[in-house]
Amino acid sequence: MSNRNVAVSKKRYKADRADIVIVGNGIAGLTAAVEARRLAPDASIVIITAQSHPTINTPALKQFAIGKLTQEQLLAYPAGTELAQRIHVINAYVEGINAQEKFLSLEGGKGFGYGSLLLATGSKATGLPQSVPGSNFDGVITLHCLEDYLDLRRRLPEVDDAVVIGGGAHAIETVMGLLHLGIHVHWLLRGKTCLSRILDTPASEMVLENIRHAGATVYTETEIQGIVGRVGSVIGVVTNHDQMIPCQLVATCTGTTPVTTLAEQCSIPIMQKHGILVDDQLRTSTRDNYAAGAVAALKNPQTGAHETRPLWHAGVLQGRTAAAMMTYHEELATQSFGVPWHATHLGDLCMLAVGDLHKMTDDLMTLTDSSKKSYRRMSFIGDRLVSYLSLGPTQPDSLAIKRIIDEGLSILDIQKDLLKGNFDARKYFSRQQSHAARTLITSGKLPTVHWIHSSTPVSRPVVISPTTSHKMPALPKTDGSLAIPVLRPATNVASTKLGPHTEPLHDAVPLTNERSQQPDTEEILPFTGKLPAFSEQIIDTQAVPAPTPQDSRRGLQSYSTKLPTVSGRQTTPGKRPPLRMTTGQFKVIGG
Amino acid sequence: MLKPVMLHKTGMQVAQEVQACIGCNECLLACPALAEPITIDVLNHVTLGGSIPAAVARFARSCYQCGACVSPCPVGLHRDAMMMWLKVRLLHAEE
Question: At what angle do helices B11-20 and A398-406 cross, to 10 degrees?
C-alpha cells in the first residue's frame, strides 16, 4: 500500500469512528444506546447490526405468531427512537475486532473505530442437527427471530398437524400458540420431564398434564430419527420408537447458543465459556470491550458459575449497566444483577422460578405445597430465601420475590404466605419502608439501605457533594422530618469526561433529546403529598423542592421513595486497565 | 411522627416493572378502559418520563384501576401500578 493510500485509509478510519459502538440491535444493544445518550449527551453513538428490522419485543413473537399482535406492535421502542436520540444505525456485518487499534472490520473491507465497544450479538437457535435426515425439507423450521415467525405465519393456513420439538418454556409456548389456532400438536420431549433445569418431577407432571388437557399429544423420552418428505416438503416425522407422526410442520424449539463468532475474531482473545465472560460491570477480558445480553456470561451469585441469561429483563438491565460503564458512570453500575429470574405462562399455568433451584447443601431447607391447583417449592437457609418456584393459576409478584432473595431479606414473617401463595408484596415492602422511616426518626440513624440489585438509574446523572461523598453524618433527632442530602445535577458530565477520548461522528445530526432535557428532579413521596422538612444542622443538606406545575416532564425516578445515594465512588476519567481472568475472578492488571 | 403510608408501588419498583415488560400486550388486550389504539412501547416510555401524548393521557384518565390487566401478564407485572404512576404524572402535568 502506498503512503498516500495509507494516509487515505487512516483518514477514513478517523472519520468513521464513534465514542460508543454497539454491535447488535437487540434489546440489550438498543437499551445501552438509549441509556448512553441520556448519560452522555454529546457522545457519538453507533449501532452496527446485520439485522434488517428495528429492535422488537422478541418474547412477544408468540403473540405475533397467533395474530394477537401486528408487526408494528412488536416494536420495543417507539418508532424513530434512534433518530430522536441521535443514535446512528449502520446496517452491516462486523467481521472482526482489532482491539489494539480499537476498530472493527466491516464486510466489504471497511473499518470503523470505537472508543468503547459493546458486543450485544445475542443468541442463535440451536436447531435440528444437519445430520437428521430430512432436516432441510420445506416445513422444517426453527423458531427464534422475526423472520422465523413471519415464515411460520405464512405456513399456518396450510397446517393441520404440527410437531414441536424441545422441552423448554419456548417449546411449551409454541405448543400452546399452535393449539390456540386449532392445530393438532404433537410435542416431542427427549426426557421424562419438561423444563428439567427448573422444574422437579411433580411440577413437570403438572405442566405436562396441563398441556395434555389443552389438547396436545405429548411424547416423552422421544427423539426424532428422521423427517419424511414428499417432493421436498415435510409430511411426517419418524421417532426413535419407530413411530411415524404425520404433520405438515416441524417446529424446532431446542434452545439457543450465544453468538460468539465476533468475539472469536478479535485480535486479542476475548475469554469465553458458554458465552463471553464478563464481570458484574460487563467488562470482557479485553480493554474497553463490554458484552451484554444473551451473549454475556455472568457469574451466578449463588453457584459461582458463569452463565448466559437470555431473558428480556436481564437484557434490559445489562444494557443499562453497559451504558453506565461506557459513559464513565461507574457509580451507576455497582450493583449486581442478582439471581436468575424467569416468569412466564405455560398454558393455563403461571410459572415463576427465582434463584438456584438445584442448590443442595446440608443447611438448606426445602418446603413444598401443592394446594389450590398449584405447586410451590421454596428453599431457604435460616431465614433467607434461596430459591422459589411457583406454578399455578396466578402469578406471584415475581420481581418482589427476586428482590427478597437478592437483598437477603428475612422471610420469617412471610414464610407461610410465600409457601401458600398468599404473599402480599405491596404490604410487605410498604411495612418495611414504614419501619425504616420510624427507625430513622426515633434513632436518628440512617437505616441500612439494601439497594435493589439492578441498575435502575436516577432520572439524570448526579454527582455527590465532596463533603458528603464518602460518609453520611448521623442525623440528629428531629421533630419527625427528614433531611435529604443535596444531589447536584452534573453539568454535562459526559462532555468533560469524554472530551479528550472521543471525537463525534461528522454526520451527527443534532436533534432534541427529550429525556436528557428533563427538568432537575428530586425524590418525593407522591402519596403523602408532603415533603420532608429541612434540618439546618446537617451540613450540605437541603429540603427537597415540591413538584411544580411546570414539572410536566418529571421522570418516574423522581417519585421514587428510595433514600438518596449517600456515598459515591469517584469515577476516574480516562482509560481503564484491562482485566485478566484467573480462576473465575477478574483481576485488574497494569493501569 | 410520620404516619405509615401504604404505597401502591414505589417509583423504583414501577421502573423495574416497566423494564421487565416483554411487550406482549396482554394487559392492554384485557383492559376494559382502553378505547383507542395505544402501543405498549409508547405507554412504557411515557410511564417512565417525557411528555404525555393526548391519547395516553385520555387512557390514563379512563383507567379505573380494576386490575384486569394484572392476571394476564405472563411475567407477573402490575400494569395497574404503572397506570397509577402515570396518573400521578398526569396530575402534575395538569396542575
Answer: 110
On average, the pLDDT of chain A sits at: 77
Which residue, A467, A430, A457, is CA-closest to B2? A430
Q: Identify from A149, A406, A556 which residue to disrupt to test chain B contact, counting B C-beta atoms within 10 A and taking the largest count.
A: A556
Quick check: A540 pLDDT over 70? no
Distance in angstroms (rounded) separating the CA atoms of residues B83 and B60: 6
Both A300 and A275 in a single domain? yes
Which residues 531-550 of A are in CB contact (within 8 Å) with B?
A: 547-549
Selection from A37, A537, A584, A7 nearest residue A324 by Cα:
A37
CB atoms within 10 A of CB A544: 22
d(CA A171, CA A164): 7
Question: Which of A525, A526, A556 is facing B48, going by the closest CB pair?
Answer: A556
CB distance A189 to A219 below 8 Å: yes
Give the relative orientation of helices B54-62 and B40-48 as an angle to the nearest 10 degrees: 80
The answer to whether residue A480 scores a pLDDT higher than 50 is no
The SS3 of residue A355 is strand
Average pLDDT value for residue range A387-404: 92
Chain A positions touching B9 (Cβ under 8 A) are 426
A246 and A156 inside one domain: yes
At A576, the pLDDT band (50, 70, 90 cuts) reads very low
What pLDDT shows up at residue A439?
61
Q: The complex's ipTM?
A: 0.80
Across A2-9, average pLDDT: 41
Res. A556: pLDDT tops 80: no
A106: β partners: A94, A110
Contact B39 A429 (CB under 8 A): no
CA distance A568 to A560: 19
pLDDT digits (tens, 9 = 90+) for A148-164: 999 999 999 999 999 99
For the cut 60, the answer to whether the pLDDT of residue A462 exceeds it is no
What range does the domain containing A156 cover? 140-254
- Report how far Cα A581 is from the mean position of its chain's Cα atoms: 23
Shortest distance between the Cα of A450 and any Cα of chain B, in A, equals: 13
Q: What is the pLDDT of residue A118?
A: 98
Instruction: CATH number of the domain at A386, please.
Output: 3.30.390.30
Q: DSSP secondary-structure letter at A210?
A: H
Q: Is residue A470 part of a domain?
A: no
Global confidence as pTM = 0.74
Residue A478 counted as domain residue:
no
My answer on whether A106 and A144 are in the same domain is: no
Same domain membership, residue A207 and residue A262: no
| Amino acid in the structure at residue A23 | V
Q: Half-sphere exposure of residue A450, counting CA atoms within 13 Å on the CB side?
A: 13
pLDDT of residue B89: 87
Q: Which of A207, A223, A254 is the last residue of a domain?
A: A254
Residue A112 belongs to a domain with what CATH number? 3.50.50.60
Query: Residue A422, SS3?
Result: coil
Which of A282, A310, A331 is at the close of a domain? A331
Structure confidence at residue A435 as a pLDDT band (50, 70, 90): low
- A176, part of any domain: yes
